[in-house]
Amino acid sequence: MSEFGDWFNSVPFLTRYWFTGSIVVPMIGKLGLINPMHLILRPDLFFGEFHLWRPITSTLYSPTGFGYLVNLYFLYQYSSRLETGSFDGRPADYLFLLFFNWICIVLLMFALIMSVLYVWAQLHRDTVVSFWFGMRFKACYLPWVILVFNYVISGSLTNELIGNVVGHLYFFLMFKYPMDLGGRVFLTTPDFLYRLLPSRRGGVTGFGAPPARRAAPQEQPGGAGAGGGGVFRRHNWGQGFRLGDD
């Protein structure tokens, strides 16, 4: 049990709660402790009888099966990598990402997972990932490969498509449009989230703000990958690590 406890405690903070909820809520329905109909979102009951828990439980609930286990794997893998990579030390910013995507989706467990996976794939678009049967390709293609794969397996692509659209909306408004295209800032993490989850180290808060100007090459010692900017510099998406590297 100590090994399991060590592994569980090593899971990033927000991913740990999301992962745990995505196991506990479906198991409650599976074991019959609560009727699953009380866990899904029904607008008539939410607005008419104030079942305020339904938007949360509907995002965590999923019928169990092989697809459910695959979803848990994606949640653990890509939420952990995003929280400890691009959002390392910025729990408030990552919570805002989850909140924004949840507001846009609110219905579907796998769609929220796919939206997080899509953001990770865009921030690490040049990282080479492995998929089933030894297939290897750049991370930017991963959300669409999963979409096609699940369509072949289950005949449905609704969840994947919604997740990719919402993930792209967040990525475009938070990163691409203000940073790469010099547009206005539409998304910023609220200050109360920084007070609730302060950054663990120096760095930039509210990092969706576009830079005032693009620094000349001689002002960037060590090249585009140097310094603390990482994936948040202009025209520098795709920084990250290959899977399996330390």
Topology:
Layout: H1 2-10, H2 13-30, H3 43-48, H4 54-60, H5 66-84, H6 91-105, H7 109-123, E1 128-130, E2 136-138, H8 142-154, H9 158-180, H10 191-196
Antiparallel strand pairs: 1-2
Descriptive account of the structure:
By secondary structure, the protein is an all-alpha fold. It contains 10 helices and 2 strands. It has a two-stranded antiparallel ribbon with strand order 1-2. It is globular, with a radius of gyration of 19 Å. The two termini are 26 Å apart.
Give structural attributes.
246 residues; mainly alpha; two-stranded antiparallel ribbon; disordered C terminus
The helix count comes to: 10
Tell me about the largest β-sheet: 2 strands, antiparallel
The side-by-side strand order for the widest beta sheet comes to 1-2
Cα-to-Cα separation, first versus last residue: 26 Å
